[in-house]
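Hi V.,

You were right to ask for the full record rather than a summary. Here it is.
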Amino acid sequence: MSETIAVLGANGVFARHLIPRLTGAGYPVRALARRPEAASVAAACGVEIHQADIFDTASMTAALAGCTVGINLATSLPGPSGRGSFEANDKLRSEGTANWIEACRAARVGRVIQQSIGFVNGRANGEWSNEESVFDEYDGSVAAQANAAALVMERLVESSGLDWIILRGGLFYGPGTGFDDAWFAAAAPGKLRLPGEGTDYVSLCHISDMARATLRALSVWPSRQKLIICDDDPAPWKEVLGFIAASCRQAPPLAGGRAGFKSCRLSNQKAKLVLGWTPSYPSWREGLAR
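Predicted structure:
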């Protein structure tokens, strides 16, 4: 394959699952990272690693030179590790995305894939939602602000003049994400708690399935489309976390934990149709089995 794929955010967990699949499929890959020494999986795969900071347009432009496709996986959302913050992530998605687009234009990278979040399509009361659904609960919470920032990011990509694809992922879990490890660690001593009453829906996506969908999008290239990537089995938190507690031989978790994102019951039917993709883990029960 002649085209070179640039991956921004190459030391993140998504990139650590995507880069080996790209190289395995025969793509020449260039890893862009703010700290190249941290891009250990990229180094192990033998790809080029270039220093680039999303808040330094010149460094990204130089790193993108000669690439034909750019994949923006940069994120700073807070996770179980304690790194990142909603405020930093909001800035990255607005100011950082504008810089990324400018760099792609300057380096003549004509096609881009942008990682986004399925929460922007969430609807209240456990209603099914798809790519056309609109999140309309802007209540001033950090979750609502994160959704607003993601939509700003998407609008920047849409208006860029580049040939784009936006992939809206469900909540990632799986190796390296930290989420399922944290859930099991809390469940083992009986300390797992539901977010609120546990009745809100969550749409999960195993990180390997997100990587597979991205690889498929490169091959199919559904130009200027937004696709939700998640499993087939959205469920209330009390079911998901109850399964984890039962796996640890504990009673169902109690209510009263910190609430996070709003209810999100996403359909992946468009991605299945457009990409010819299906999740390897159609249910979180399979992905969380230990």
